[in-house]
Amino acid sequence: MLSKYLAAAVFASALIATPALAQTPKPAVSAQSASSAGLWQSSKLIGTNVYNDQNEKIGSIKELMVDKTGNLESAVIGVGGFLGVGERDVAVKFSDLKWSNEPVKSSTTGAGTTNTAPTNSSAGPRTYPDHAIYNASKDQLSSMPQFDYNK
User: What is the reported pTM?
Assistant: First the structure.
């Protein structure tokens, strides 16, 4: 008699477990979507130096402006001034910026000194570029209209 109850219990357990086993497993998260490969940290872009095509520093990124859908529209660059005094903000299209992962090439200035950008010595892939490139001079950027954050 005990074997009848045992057989019935095993059979009932099998019936209950069958639908759970038949369910399709959820797809695993791909390595690309679970990692930051190919992505940049936007917080690291703020403060990034901007150079022109002649490797002259023309400013630094002060802010990134996004539209209502989250697309980057413009980068606000602080230009001119000395140690932040007299600096003014101008906006350029984000798509007009080029990005470089390599440090700015050394150049010799008039006094025989070398102008180089600091390098990052940490191992592993960086989650931000070394600098931005915008094809304009300091004078051209300075003549652009002041960016108004309130508009």
Answer: 0.64
d(CA 51, CA 97): 10
CA-to-CA distance for 87 and 59, rounded, in angstroms? 9
Tens of pLDDT, residue by residue over 85-116, are 788 999 999 999 999 998 987 655 444 444 44
Going from the C-alpha of 99 to that of each of 7, 10, 85, 130, the distances in angstroms are 70, 65, 27, 8
Where are the chain's structural domains?
Answer: 39-115+128-142
| Architecture of the domain whose range is 39-115+128-142 | Roll (2.30)
Residue pair 38/122 in contact by the 8 Å Cβ criterion: no
Q: What span, in angstroms and rounded, lies between the C-alpha atoms of 103 and 120?
A: 9
